[in-house]
C-alpha cells in the first residue's frame, strides 16, 4: 500500500507546487493591494491611482454580451506588438504621438471583479477607448448599426439594447441618428434603453493609462501636463 | 489471486465470464454518459458552425440578441467541454478502470445515473443562461455561478468509485500506465475546478490575476484532465488491439511524470506583455514549450508500439481513431509551443491560433481517442456489433478532414491576424484590412465545423441504434478492412 500512497503524494506534489506558486500566493498578495496615492511633487498629479472605480452597471452589459470574445482591454509593450503606437490608443490623440501609450499594469484593473483582458482581438483594443471615443450619440449609432459606420464591420448589431417606438409629438432628443439606409420606418424612432446608456457610459470611462505613481517616465509622457 | 491450475480453455472461459460481469456492472452509467455526450457534441458542433458564420456575417438569421457571436461562441465551447468532453471522459474512465483493475462496480449505480442526470440538466440550464444573457464572460466558466457546485458534486460521484477501484487493485509489481493517467485525471480535475471557481466566483475580485487564473484553468483542464484521459485510453487500447506490449516502461513513466510536473505551470502566457507580473507569464511560456518533452515521449512510445502493426490500424475502427488521436497529440503540443514561445507567441497572441489549440486538443486528440474507445466499449455493453462499416468510415474521414482544416486554417489565420495587427503600416488605419483578411479563414472554420457536424450526426445515429440494441447479432466484430484474412487480430483484441 505504500506504493499507492507514494503515487498519490507524487500527484499532489507535482500539481501542488504550481498551484501554490501561481495561484494561491499571487491571489493572496493581490488581495492586499489598495489604491496608491500620487505624490504631488514627484508625479505632478493629485489623488489616487487608479483614479476612479469603473462603471459596474455598464460592465455587466459588456460581460453579458460577451464583448471580450472580440475586444481586448490590454495594451502590450512595444516590443510585443504595435498596440502602443496605434493612433489614438492612448490618451494622446495626436496624429503622431511622440511616445507610445504605456502597457497596462496590475493596478489598472484594481477594483474590477474580473479583468476583461479579452480572448481574441477581432476588433480594436478598448483599454483606453474613453479617450478616442466619439460622442455618445455616435456610439449609440455604432452599437445599433455597426454597418452604418463601416460597411465591412463584423460587429453584431445590438438592436436588443434599443427600442423602436412610434414618434409621439416631437422626435425624442435621445433618438439615435441613423443614415437614411439604416433608418427606422417613417414615423418611428430608435431610443437607447437604460442598459445601452450604462454600456456607453462604461465604454466612455475606459481610460486605463493614467500615470503610474513613481514612474516618472509615464508622467513625462503624459500629455496631461501641457 | 492464485487459482488452481486449469486447462487454457477453461481459463479463457473464466476470463471471459469475469469480463462480462464487469461490463454488465458498469453498463448503465457508461452508456448513459456516452449517449448524452454524443447529443451535446452534436449541439456543440452545430453551434460552432453558427458562431463561425456569425463572425463573418453578423446579420445571418437577423439581429436576434440570443445568437450574437459573443453568446454563441461560449455556448459552443461550454457544450463541447462540459457536455461532451467531461461526460465522455467519465464514461471511458469508469470502464477502463473497472476492466483494468478487474473489479466490478459494486452498488451505487443508481447514484451514478442520478449524478449523470443532474449533470445534464445543469448544463442545459447553464448553456441556456449564456444564450439568454447571463454569461459571466470568464472563458470556459461562462455558465452562471450556480452551476459549478452541482457539476463538482456529480463529478465526485464518479471519481470516488474510480479511485476506489484503483486503490483496491493496486499491485506494486503491476505496471499500469493507463490507470495512472486516469487516476491522475480523477484527482486533478476537482482540484483545478474548485480552485478556479472559488477564485473567480467566490473571492471578492481578483482583477487581472483573475484573468490569469482563468487562462491557467483552461490549460490545466486540457493538460491535466483531457490529455491524461486521451493518453490513458491510447495506452490501454493500442497494446490490447495490436497484441504488443507497450514498447518502453521507462518512456511511459517519464512521459507521465513530466506531464504531471509541467501541466500545472502553463496558461498565463496567454497574457504575455499584459498586466500580470512578468514572471507568471514567462513561467507559463517556458512550461508551454517544455511540454514538448512529455508529448514527444508519449508520441515515441506509441509509435514504437504500433510499429509493424499498421494493417490493424487500417482494419480496427478503435485503433484507427486512437492512432489518429495519438497523432494529434504532438500536433496540439506544437500549437501550444508556438503560442507560448516569445518569438512566435507575440504574433499569435489574441488570434485564432489559441482557439485552434483548444479545438485540436479537445477534438483532434481527446475526442478521437474517446471515439476509438467508444467503438470498442459499446459493443461489449450492448451485446451487439456496430451496424455499418460505412458509417464508421465516414465518421472517421469527415472528422479528420474537419479537424485538419480547423487546425491548419486557424494557425494560418492566426499568423495572418497577427501580421495585420502588428503591421506598422496600419498604425493609423481602421481594422478593415484585418477584418477582411481573416474572413476566408473564418468561412473555412464554418465549413470545417460543418464537416464535423455531419460526421457526428452519423456517430450519434449509430450510437443510438447500438444503445437501443439494434446492432448486428454476430460474434465477429465490425472491421473496416478484411484483406488480410490470416493476419486476423489477436484474440485479445476482441476480449
Radius of gyration of chain A: 23 Å
Arithmetic mean pLDDT of chain B: 89
Total beta-strand segments of chain A = 4
Shape of chain A: globular
**Distinct helical segment count of chain B:** 15
Radius of gyration computed on alpha carbons of chain B = 23 Å
Average pLDDT confidence of chain A is 87
Measured by residues with Cβ under 8 Å of the partner chain's Cβ, the largest interface is: A-B, 74 and 90 residues
Question: What oligomerization state is this entry in?
Answer: heterodimer
Q: What order do the helices and strands of chain A follow?
A: HEHEHHHEEHH
Class of secondary structure makeup of chain B = mainly alpha
State the secondary-structure class of chain A.
Answer: mainly alpha
Order of helices and strands of chain B: HHHHHHHHHHHHHHH
**Mind summarizing the main beta sheet of chain B?**
none
Largest sheet of chain A: 2 strands, antiparallel
End-to-end Cα distance of chain B, whole Å, is 20 Å
Instruction: Catalogue the unreliable spans of chain A.
Output: none
| Count of distinct strands of chain B | 0
Looking across the biggest beta sheet of chain A, what order are the strands in? 1-2
How would you describe what is shown here?
The complex is a heterodimer of chains A (226) and B (495). Chain A has 226 residues and is mainly α. Chain A contains seven helices and four strands, in the order αβαβαααββαα. A two-stranded antiparallel sheet of chain A has the order 1-2. In chain A, strands 3-4 form a two-stranded antiparallel ribbon. Chain A is globular, with a radius of gyration of 23 Å. The N and C termini of chain A lie far apart (74 Å). The mean pLDDT of chain A is 87. Chain B has 495 residues and is mainly α. Helix content of chain B is 75%, strand content 0%. Chain B contains 15 helices and no strands. In chain B, helix 2 packs parallel to helix 4 (147-169), helix 5 (177-202) packs parallel to helix 7 (249-263) and helix 11 packs across helix 12 (342-348). The two termini of chain B are 20 Å apart.
